[in-house]
Amino acid sequence: MTRTVLLCVAACGFAVLAGCATQQAAEKGEVRQYVETDTGRWLVHDVNRPAPPKVTPGKAPGDAVKLFAGTDPDLSEWTDTKGNASKWIVRDGYMEAVKGAGYIQTKRKFGSCQLHVEFATPSDVKDSGQGRGNSGVFLMGIYEVQVLDSYNNHTYPDGQCAALYGRNVPLVNACAKPGEWQSYDIIFHRPIFKDKDVVRKPTFTILHNGVLVHDHVVLQGGTGWRGKHAISDYEPHEDKGPISLQDHGNPVQYRNVWIRELAD
User: Fold this and answer.
1) Fewer Cβ close by (within 10 Å): the C or N end of the chain?
2) Is the pLDDT of residue 176 over 80?
3) Rg (Cα) of the chain, in Å, rounded?
4) How many domains is the chain built from?
5) pTM of the full predicted structure?
6) If pLDDT is split at 50, 70 and 90, which confidence band does 27 have?
């Protein structure tokens, strides 16, 4: 986020007016307000101020990295967790988890980012609770946004669809029916570590099917399973990691996965 500091100066050469006393300045001459930014000092409404880069909107913005566009004939951007070719299935514009194939993860690594993912839980409903359409989207291969069929399916709230697993319950249940395509739009700012200590915790803002379910939530620890009523804590890691999708034994499908890297 660009840092701005607002300054008010009378154009006729008077001193900087503390508190931006606009009425008083107007009586002495035109008021000129400046902002201090990362790109320099600019007048308010200055046409010479650098404009943001233009992107092409659509399924994936022009500056996005397409990780799986739906037309991919293979999984060239993905591997299993050992760096080998994944055994996930690709067909009809989506990739599908295969029981026993393990997680699939990107070859590239990312830190803070905007991530878009579309997914569908199985239309053939089986089991209940955590056994129904279970998968997950992992930022940096570590921090999980839960994928689950939570349409008329009771489970623990911090493990339902769109939960930050074991940590934060979504504001609402925006889950679509089984078999229908759904979307996550995730704004993630990574943690920062100094030695073994976390000095800045990660944050998540998430829209599930266009509905806000996490509003700049500060994640208070890890999301790893540590038993029926326990969860992991923070462990130091690199500044970037892969995007990872979970094989939890259910044939969950994914398509239209893209990412935009964000500044820390």
Assistant:
1) N
2) yes
3) 23
4) 2
5) 0.83
6) low
